[in-house]
Amino acid sequence: MLSKKIKYISLFIMIILSVNILYGCNTSNNKNTPISKTNFYLDTVITIKLYDNVDDTIFNKVFDRIEEIENKMTINKNTSEVIDINSNSGENFVKVSRDTFNVIEKSLYYSELSKGYFDITVGPIVKLWNIGSDDARVPTKDEIKATLPKVDYKKILINKDTKEVMLKDKGMVIDLGGIAKGYVADEVKNLLVDNGVEHGIINLGGNVYTLGTKVDGSKWKIGIQNPLETRGAYIGTVSVSNKSIVTSGIYERFFEKDGKRYHHILSPFTGYPVNNNLSGVSIISDKSIDGDALSTSIFSIGLKEGKKIIENLDGVDAIFITKDKKISITSGLKDNFELVNNSFEFISD
User: Which among 279, 182, 273, 184 has a CA at the least distance from the CA of 227?
Assistant: First the structure.
């Protein structure tokens, strides 16, 4: 775990260097100088940067709230509400908190929207691969074949009145890793607003939420990750306020075996890493929970059909980046996205 934290801290240093350049700091007087805190939760480095005259005890509230949600939804500790659901699969309903129920309910919405490309019951497949850990490996075909029947979001049973959840079949596993960070970002934003914060950046290991505007009233300029390079390299920028930016791609978590790279975005249908021409998808949305779920599912669906889905969603835009360095953007970004890397080019589709 210590080596993993060191890896994320190194990534975070690169993020901060880029963030300082892109976000800019309005230092015409002391009150505009930001205060920030960093911590490690949700298996990633989190930084909160605020540009208001607020007591720095606000960070205690923020990180306490993040820890509270993590303790309810993690599958990487000894106990949690999600672990209780998984332990009772095929047997009993489990009563959960509003937080956990809301995230599971939202997950089911995106499973329907994406026709199953987003599926939080992919947990058994995730465990087979263990990508992102020291135990990453390529499962056998027989292992994947035997595990795939345990993946089916339609077998998640919920009772909205009692906030109870059950997995229909024994051995099913919920993993909220593809949506929980988005929910956390939204909850942190709400907490900050309730405590009088008007200007800030919430960065959950690359899930970015821009709160309000910069102090001078201008929008935040956010870099869009180059998915063909390590974190901190950008292909372009967007100018936003009160927006979430979430990117899914092949650059974050992967391992190589016999000269082949295996990334962490796994197909609920095949049990293998998604194989298409995309290297990354960035989602710009009003709520981070939407961006989190959509970035994963739209990446899996692919450019053509994924773009159709995004164009039909209010308040959501996307940037698609292909493995051969082509870029496609949705209509809402036509006058906003600025390309800064000349090795990439736009395509019409």
Answer: 279
Instruction: Decide: 59 and 48 in contact? Cβ < 8 Å.
Output: yes
Distance of alpha carbon 281 from alpha carbon 322, whole angstroms = 9
Summarize the confidence of residues 122-136 as an average pLDDT.
91
Residue percentage of the chain with pLDDT more than 90: 79
Q: Is the pLDDT of residue 244 over 60?
A: yes
Nearest Cα neighbor of 316 from 286, 288, 344 is 286
Instruction: Write out the H or E segment, with its range, that includes residue 318.
Output: strand 316-322
Measured CA to CA in angstroms, residue 46 lies from 42, 43, 63, 85, 295 at distances of 9, 9, 9, 27, 19
Crossing angle (nearest 10°) for helices 288-301 and 180-194: 160
Q: Tokens representing 138?
A: 């390529």
Q: How far apart are CA 141 and CA 267, in angstroms?
A: 14
